[in-house]
Design a protein that fits this description.
Length: about 160
């Protein structure tokens, strides 16, 4: 009985702490190791990359994001794909579940350029009041060719910035 009461109190505390994270006017910075994203497409196979993100909450539960990323797929080039993009996240529940959508411009090592809209579903696991671990599943649709469309998993770290 005591364990159940403690679990209930802990759950309420996490919910209360998490609700403050997604409020209007807050900032966000993050990075994802997209090599753990283990994404696969027909053109490149398995890839390893790094993504940096910055965001802002113009309204409660809604974040706008900008990102830049570099991906290496085992060829001789240091970065085989470089992209820059913008998007947003909507936090469905106050405990961290989110839906994301965006678009990015991708430059692939002198072979092609592409515009790729994408979707993602993720979860922000709070380690403390502002730092999160953020696993996500995503899909990027290529306008160039369906061979370049990508599905994957990524693991990121986020920091929610406060003004207090």
């Amino acid at each position: 009985m005591i364990k159940k009461c403690l679990l209930l109190v802990a759950t309420m505390m996490v919910s209360i702490c998490a609700s403050a994270q997604f409020q209007e006017g807050k900032g966000y910075i993050g990075a994802s190791l997209t090599g753990l994203d283990l994404h696969y497409n027909a053109q490149d196979g398995l890839n390893v990359g790094l993504e940096a993100k910055a965001g802002f909450f113009p309204w409660d539960n809604l974040m706008i994001l900008g990102n830049v990323s570099a991906v290496h797929n085992g060829s001789e080039a240091v970065a085989d794909h470089i992209s820059i993009g913008a998007g947003g996240r909507y936090y469905i529940t106050q405990n961290g579940l989110y839906l994301g959508a965006g678009v990015k411009f991708l430059h692939a090592n002198h072979s092609y350029n592409d515009v790729m809209p994408g979707l993602e579903v993720g979860y922000a696991f709070f380690l403390n009041r502002s730092v999160t671990i953020e696993p996500a599943i995503y899909y990027d649709q290529s306008f160039k060719s369906s061979r370049y469309s990508t599905i994957g998993f990524k693991l990121g770290v986020g920091v929610y910035l406060f003004d207090d």
